[in-house]
Design brief:
Blueprint (H helix, E strand, L loop, with lengths): L3 E6 L4 H10 L4 E5 L7 E4 L4 E4 L5 E3 L3 E6 L15 H23 L16 H8 L8 E4 L12 E4 L6 E2 L4 E2 L4 E3 L10 E5 L5 E8 L2 E8 L23 E2 L4 H14 L3 E9 L2 E8 L15 H9 L10 E3 L2 E3 L3
Parallel strand pairs: 1-2, 1-6
Antiparallel strand pairs: 3-4, 4-5, 7-12, 8-11, 8-12, 9-10, 13-14, 13-16, 14-15, 16-17, 18-19
Amino acid sequence: MHGVLLVVTNSYDATADLLVSRLGKDQVFRFNFDLWSEYRFEISARDFFLADPSGREITSARVAKLLWRKPVSRTPWRRASRTREDRYYDGEMLYAMRELVNLLWLEGKVVLVEPFAELHAGKFVQLRLASAHLQVPPYQFHLGGKSLFSEGQETVVKSLTMEPVGSEEDRELLFTTKVDDRALSSSCPWMVQQYVRATKDVTVAFVRDQLFAFELDRKAFLNHAVDWRELPSDWKQGDWLPHRLDDRVSSGIFAFMKDMGLYFGRLDFLWGPEGYVFLEVNSNGEWGWLDPDGRYGLLPKMADELNPHTPAHSIPFSRFGVRYSAR
């Protein structure tokens, strides 16, 4: 039987939907972890077995490539009805799923997105490494202590985790927001960054050996928000246009991603009078909304990299701090 792409994700993943549509259902086996109770799942000394709700089955031998999306269980959001048994079963399944991924990683089948990369590729590591190749704004994480920024200097506060705040009934996300750093409570942790005056947001999808850049004009929303993510969801589609990157920035991105050891990521910049200012790279960033029809080359490139019948450019497996290729 022909090999397939195994996508470890959730049932509410529009990017995975797009890939399935592009590659074809027969080429993709989807493990929706939020619905794990509807699957059959076994791991033994020699192999694993996975069957979806329709009865379709795969073992390790059938998996040509694996794509790690953002699998989570929905039960953490059902706290009122969640029992100790729910937490235990979720934990056991999460552990087993991670090991399934690691076993395939050892076989050289994990491609593009590095699972669990956020554990070693967080924002402070990114900013430290990016500063050698790209322009990085001054920043400071602080709990109490003295502010790095002078009085009157424009700053923004942003969340490191994007965890919701507030009550169960009124939960909100902290998007990037302009603040007076000196007015922030000293009893709370804050990630503060110099405010960048910019006319465009630029986001760049790095796909192993190619870059796909897009821009969003900030003029239309700066009177309402600093962060485009606060805007209605339809802003993400249709308002982003292809962007021609400066050659030096393109070279800087390739050098930075090599230092990071990442094969995929979506990098965010601000562009203005001082050029490109690097903000962060999301090692598992969403990208489907940038090129849903494949007209700009991003979707075809992703489909080619993930096609189970094209060569697998496997991510080196990291063990005890030593990265090595499984092949």
